[in-house]
Amino acid sequence: MASHSTEGSFALKLPVEIWRVVIISAVQSLEPMDNCHEASESLTTQFHLARRVTSKSPEYALMLVCKVLNTIAIEFFYERISVRSKGQLIALTEGLKSPRIANYMANWTRRFDFNHWRTPEYNNRDKGLLVRVLRSCPNLTHLVIDLAMHESKVGAKARDASAVIDACAKSCKRLEVLHLAFNFTTYMSAQMPLGVFLTTFRNIKTLRLGKNAKIAFPEEARVHPGELPFLHTFEACEDASLSPFTDVRLPSLSTVHFRGKHFPSYGEVPYALLGFISTHGNKLTTLTFIGVVQDYPAFAREVVPLLVGCTRLQAFVTDIIDLVPLLRFDQLVLSQLTRLELSNDSSAWPPSPSGFRATLIADLRAHFPSLEVLRWLGRVDKDVTSHNTREGLDPSEGGTDAHHANAAGIQIENRDGDKLELCQLLVQ
């Protein structure tokens, strides 16, 4: 029998490709930001890296086993970097003074998450540190900048934005996912032109704009601002974030998510969203409207024709408080829609929960004739028994829920895809 040391030596002689697969299986994790189809929850749930790599992570432990594993694991250790404090930013830039660490970051860093909004004072030195880090990562595919800047603070001026975006221009040629909560405008006359933004981030595929993410309008309205040719997913929570992109060419756009930043509380009517959907709606296959219509009947009247204009729409994500006003209009018919995802996060409930359930399936079939799946994103009453044991109940109380849903060809399921009955949906 081979000795333990012999067995270990044999294992370490395995091809690097095999060890890379082994390490990937040990450290791989699904990041919410990579899911472009789910936007029923607040944008903050997808804005930052969910898994941070630290000295307690498997990547670090593998680096300490031996030289063979160190050579492979170090690639994964530097793949994602998350900075959440001023001290971490300073430590990272100090580390860049080492040619070895600088080389690792240049070669291997793909995701950089800068979350600096908790720090009350953002100054010129902080800006310089961020710029240095960005310039040290030329192979970024994912970039998150969540930065609270106030005009009264030192450094909160247009030159800061210019320096940051200039660094991005040199480091983001391969960027695919961009998350910004950073104001590129409102600083006197020195604004960050939209054209510069489009040139810098030309290759992005997913764009998420958080709170306070604003970009200047083009100065010459007669000049077309440009395009983002590969962008397929655009998510925002503020109306103003959409305005600059209404006239931008977005040939690959297929998914738009908008969830009002104040939802479930009432917010401002997002009129800029109407203009954006009017221009780009005919490209969309997936659309999220949460906290958009709410209890504004006049606004619902304006939204209906825009939704009808989304002739390719297959998946629609919305909340009860948005859906109910829309269903009052007979003109709302989305013939291509096959999946409806419905949340119930608002504090303003339907007048009659049982009445809502009793008419829901018929309403959905009338407005969405091709609907196959109703995915319920709200709470579920797990104590309700199946329809087989509920004989004799009045239909308005859910006695024939499953029968009506099945007869209409609509499958009801929860967020995880488990089958539900209509009577299990909690709408109160």
TrEMBL record:
<dbReference type="InterPro" id="IPR032675">
    <property type="entry name" value="LRR_dom_sf"/>
</dbReference>
<protein>
    <recommendedName>
        <fullName>F-box domain-containing protein</fullName>
    </recommendedName>
</protein>
